[in-house]
Amino acid sequence: MTNCISCGNSFSIERKKLGYRNCLDCGDKVASKQTQEKKSRVTCAYNKSGLMYVSDIKTTLNYERKNK
């Protein structure tokens, strides 16, 4: 058994082997927080490229292109 880095409770060694450092309860809290943060992101699709995630739409609206 290993200990959770957030609360200190022990969790199974199999979970540790999968790469987790948190118990199930703390892992669920972290995942819920990340889900809430990612829900508000906007994605801009570009031709023949990947997606760019913008955390604040104001960043996109206030973007000024630099002239070379």
Helix and strand layout, with pairings?
Layout: E1 2-3, E2 10-11, H1 13-17, H2 24-39, E3 42-45, E4 51-54, H3 57-61
Written account of the structure:
The chain is α+β, with helices and mostly antiparallel strands and 68 residues long. It has one domain. 38% of the residues lie in helices and 18% in strands. It is built from three helices and four strands. It has helices spanning 13-17, 24-39, 57-61; strands at 2-3, 10-11, 42-45, 51-54. The strands form two sheets. Strands 1-2 form a two-stranded antiparallel ribbon. A two-stranded antiparallel sheet has the order 3-4. β3 (42-45) and β4 (51-54) form a beta hairpin. The longest helix has 16 residues, at 24-39. The mean pLDDT is 78.
Task: Jot down its keywords.
3 helices, 68 residues, two-stranded antiparallel ribbon, alpha+beta
Short structural description:
The chain has 68 residues and is of the alpha+beta class.
Number of domains: 1
What strand line-up does the widest sheet have? 1-2
E-strand count: 4
Reading the helices and strands in chain order gives EEHHEEH
Q: Count every helix, treating DSSP H or I runs of 4 or more residues as helices.
A: 3
Structural Rg: 19 Å
How far from one another are the termini?
A: 58 Å
Residue share in β-strands? 15-25%
Overall residue-averaged pLDDT value: 78
